[in-house]
Amino acid sequence: MSKTIFAKIKSVNFIFIFVLVISWVLLFINGLHQLDPDFGWHVTMGRLISENGIPKTDPFSYTMTSFPFVDHEWLTNVIIARMYESVGRVGLAAMYSTLVIIALLFSLWETLNLKDRRYEKITPLLILLPSLLVLGVLFSFAGIRPQVTSWFLIVLLYKILTDENYWKKWRYIVAPLMLLWTNLHGSFAVGIFVILLVFVVKSLRLRRFLKDYFLVFLASFTATFINPYRVRLWGEVWMQLSDTKLRWRILEWMPSLTFLNFSFIFLLTLSAFLVYRYWRRFGKERLFVYVFFLFQGMGSVRHVPLWSILTIPILIEAIIYLYDEVKVIKFGPERFTKLFTFLTYGVGFVFICQGTYSYFSSLSLSEKYFYPQKAALYLKSNLPAGQLFSEYGWGGYLIQYLPERKVFIDGRMPSWRYNNAPAGESNYAMEDYLGISRGGLDYKEQFVKYGIETVLWPKGKKTFMSELDRRFEKLLSKFKKEDKEKFNFVATLEKDSWKKIYEDDIAVVYRKP
């Protein structure tokens, strides 16, 4: 190609360049301020693997020490750890922000190359409208998170599978791509399913066995076993996919009805309406992939970014079909342009609001305002004799900043369970944690079992679990009345004479009497 992609963007619309720059800056700031709850264990695990190799059991918890932990993002953790040591969070935030923008550009590639004179007047709208909507959605999910890599990889895979020209030229890189993805993140399973889905649907449409698609699927599936865990990696993926309790315990696994994002609502409404209107005109493979990710996105918040970024090509195509339909009507093209220009202004306003909200949300999850930074330093200097019990959302942070003590639970463990755990360990740490913190279990008995002598707990702040409780109770309140008095874990400790030995604006530390 004679022009670079940035030259093409410039020839289309200067406003789009401005939107990309502003979006990158917002994504970068969010990544810099917002500390993902799992970031600490990602860094620590990456260092551990680099120095000692892949651990066979869990190295960070005292409740499930013998559990055969599978790190489905081991290579990403190594990369994060090494980059963190060399360029810090600034470099990581820049890298992941750039990945988001690149994924968006790949999804827009055909539209950026659009040379059809019939659509010259609406080309800026075809680029700007979906970009504003999708970026508004991604603001709520981006950051220094391994999942972001999957957004780029799924767009790349989708392009190759659904475009005949790309398929003929690039199908040989699909298996190596899946090999890389397998070792970067557990979402590789989505890629495998998409390859299989396209192969089956296209074979049925053409009424013949597509040998090249089958061989690519077979090679890609085989490549997923080239990892440090072999077949156990698929076991880890299945463990999470089959754990229905995740949808009501972890915020990002909850159904999308709990996710308030106006860009998502706008994108879902516009996309669903236009795709439904013109569904007969889309290629069956693209339509099935769209529907698959739509259901995935509605079923779980964590899949919303994948659906959003993949909906761009099919949404643009649907807008073109609508334009073709109205352009034969008198004054149709003019009215269409005015309508979509007005719509783009509205989406731009939503984009600004979503970006502003995302910025303040990132501050609320920053190290300064959410994590027990000072309390961790206190505990490091006054190391407790026994084990430490703490808030679920702080587990990853403590793994990095208080490595002298293992954690009760962290973000890797919600689905972990044994049939018969070794003595002194838990069969199901997440269930035990919820039982202790919500009053379903006798905390004294559990504390004796694990030798817990210190509790580090949030001081009147919104936590991951308190926010989950709030959303869940709000949902339940529509169906039944809850009369039971809410359990207060801290009040129970104080009632039982636990001594408060440290307190700041974020956290409080109690010691066993």
From TrEMBL:
This protein's UniProt keywords: Membrane, Transmembrane, Transmembrane helix
The keyword Transmembrane is annotated on this UniProt entry: yes
Domain of life: Bacteria
Signal peptide: none
Parts of the chain that traverse the membrane: 12-32, 93-112, 124-144, 173-201, 213-233, 253-276, 304-322, 342-360
Entry keyword annotation includes rRNA processing: no
Protein name per the record: Glycosyltransferase RgtA/B/C/D-like domain-containing protein
Source organism (scientific name): Candidatus Woesebacteria bacterium RIFCSPHIGHO2_01_FULL_40_22
